Amino acid sequence: MQRDLEIDLLRSFVAIAAHRNFTRAAEAIGRTQSAVSLQLKRLEEIAGERLFERNRSSVEITNSGEALLVYANRILSANEAALAHMRRPEAEGLIRFGAPDDYASYLLAPLLAAFSSNYPLIEFELTCESSIDLLPMLERGEIDILLATHSSDQVKGRIARYESLHWVAAPDYVDDPDQRLSLALFPNGCSVREAGLRALEQIERPWRIACSTRSVNLIEQTVLNGAAVSVMEASILPETLRILDGQPGFPPLPEIAMSVHYNKAACAPHVAIFADYLVGELGRVRG
């Protein structure tokens, strides 16, 4: 008798594919690592194929896993659409949502549009500030939910995914690794900024801040003008900029954690629905 693909198994599978790490995948979907491992084993038994190659240092998706991932995302999307349709009459209200400017500009617009199409009675009030400023606003009750970034060793909130960072510059930029590096970065307290500066300090390369701003558009223009290089998350990289990773003078960068913060125990039902949606959508694609 043919066994059907179960939603919970697919959700764990997609999380592993996004994070390439069982511990991080388990954190993202609120399960234990052993439970996620067991769910993957059950899914591989149903599929009759090995979906990941695992060793102590890495988790790599197989060709069979890549093929299943396409259908898994479709099934999860259909499941969420069906639930959204059933919940639509009762889901209404205002969500005061906070997010950094870079994510609001490049990442969140299509997600919010898709959510609003399923929940037309839910309205948003969007506040764009840095993570370090948004977290106190949540504590004071000024916003209901926020998207924030943290260094991978200081993870907080409900993890949606881990994001790669890249050194970026203008297409015609030529670097002299013996010279002080001019940087265009987000303000103090930003985990992306801190990751870049720590990396430079580790190789003892001198640097200066040429531009410090919350505006990702201003950073892009500063970099395009050749006045500086920057560090950016993979999901918001403008096509106009060139990645410098691996070149002399540009050390490897760590991943950062992207997480959703809200008062799970006390939030309104429509905020909880949005939190589940946000974690699910962001976790499907690894940055």
UniProtKB/TrEMBL annotation:
Gene3D superfamilies from the entry? Periplasmic binding protein-like II, Winged helix-like DNA-binding domain superfamily/Winged helix DNA-binding domain
Where in the numbering of this chain does the HTH lysR-type domain appear? 5-62
Q: PROSITE patterns, from UniProt? A: HTH_LYSR (PS50931)
**Cell inner membrane in keyword set:** no
DNA-binding as UniProt keyword: yes
Per UniProt, the keywords (alphabetical) are: DNA-binding, Transcription, Transcription regulation
**Matches recorded under InterPro entries:** LTTR, LysR_HTH_N, LysR_subst-bd, WH-like_DNA-bd_sf, WH_DNA-bd_sf
Q: Which family does it belong to?
A: Belongs to the LysR transcriptional regulatory family.
Show the PANTHER family listed in the entry: HTH-TYPE TRANSCRIPTIONAL REGULATOR LRHA-RELATED, TRANSCRIPTIONAL REGULATOR
Q: What is this protein called?
A: LysR family transcriptional regulator
Organism, scientific name: Hoeflea alexandrii
